[in-house]
Recover the amino acids of this structure.
């Protein structure tokens, strides 16, 4: 399977951010990039009252990120995901939050490579789609290459089709999840060394990557690049991705994207949802451009109570472009 794994660019799974509305929006900006769900636990899928595997067909290629450590449950969820049409299943071995640790999954599983390997084996017995692993470089004081390879060698031997390495270790004690995204130093060279170690396995690098130039440089050293917060906060960055890997360049304008999102927002409202569920992911669409702040302001004020995608998004465009309209008018 490793030789056929050809996703070079991806948007990271981000809790509370990369839901199905975000992924639908992102797919308008890039056709080739692999999109990940938020992490979903096996317990939520098996015992939850809602459909945690729901997605839009337009999102493909789309991967499910699973949180769990019981091989039987991981295999059951993997089979359900393949049945629903997901293109990949990823095991979360990177999240450092207390809640995740208490559930015995996430970054704490780096210390339990045999458990993760058993999960990989169990999942691969029931699915044909790639089973991949996303992890850190280490946890707490366990930050050596020996510790990293004790984990990665074991899961690769078990049959993992790809590795994504967040180029930082995680502090399970003393740092919050937010602090763990910034404070541990980035060590890109260690990810490059891992790709050298696993020459026939795709390795993707993640962490602190914010520009097309940086992506290009990393792709000279590793098979793939995963971008997280930069892709969310400045989503137009995604429009550069397809051309970076030699595919047809993105051609829509930002206004084209807004027009395409209007019927999607309206449909979500018609299904009983709120416009804000969708448009909150669009706040950064005009990031760095004149009027970008006004676009964000309009959506933030009007979005939570909006009943029409057309009036909301066209109103935001008008407010962005017409500087004669004041904030006091917006608040009325």
């Amino acid at each position: 399977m490793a030789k056929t794994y050809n996703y070079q660019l991806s948007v990271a799974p981000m809790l509370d951010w990369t839901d199905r509305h975000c992924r639908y929006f992102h797919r308008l900006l890039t056709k080739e990039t692999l999109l990940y769900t938020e992490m979903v636990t096996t317990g939520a899928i098996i015992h939850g009252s809602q459909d945690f595997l729901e997605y839009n067909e337009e999102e493909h290629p789309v991967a499910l990120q699973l949180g769990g450590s019981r091989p039987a449950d991981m295999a059951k969820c993997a089979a359900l995901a393949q049945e629903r049409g997901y293109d990949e299943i990823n095991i979360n071995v990177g999240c450092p939050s207390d809640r995740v640790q208490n559930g015995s999954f996430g970054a704490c599983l780096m210390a339990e490579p045999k458990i993760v390997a058993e999960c990989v084996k169990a999942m691969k017995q029931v699915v044909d789609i790639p089973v991949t692993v996303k992890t850190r470089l280490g946890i707490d004081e366990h930050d050596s290459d020996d510790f990293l390879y004790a984990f990665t060698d074991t899961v690769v031997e078990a049959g993992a089709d790809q590795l994504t390495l967040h180029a930082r270790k995680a502090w399970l004690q003393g740092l919050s999840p937010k602090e763990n995204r910034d404070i541990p130093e980035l060590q890109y060279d260690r990810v490059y060394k891992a790709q050298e170690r696993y020459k026939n396995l795709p390795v993707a690098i993640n962490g602190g990557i914010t520009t097309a130039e940086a992506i290009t440089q990393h792709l000279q050293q590793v098979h793939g690049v995963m971008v997280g917060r930069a892709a969310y906060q400045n989503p137009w960055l995604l429009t550069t991705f397809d051309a970076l890997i030699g595919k047809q360049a993105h051609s829509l304008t930002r206004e084209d994207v807004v027009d395409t999102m209007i019927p999607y927002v309206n449909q979500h409202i018609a299904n009983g949802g709120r416009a804000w569920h969708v448009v909150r992911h669009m706040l950064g669409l005009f990031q760095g451009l004149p009027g970008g702040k006004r676009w964000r302001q309009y959506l933030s004020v009007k979005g939570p109570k909006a009943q029409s995608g057309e009036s909301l998004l066209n109103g935001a465009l008008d407010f962005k472009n017409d500087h004669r309209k004041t904030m006091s008018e917006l608040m009325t």
Observations:
- The chain has a mean pLDDT of 92.
- The longest strand covers residues 34-41.
- The longest helix spans residues 254-270.
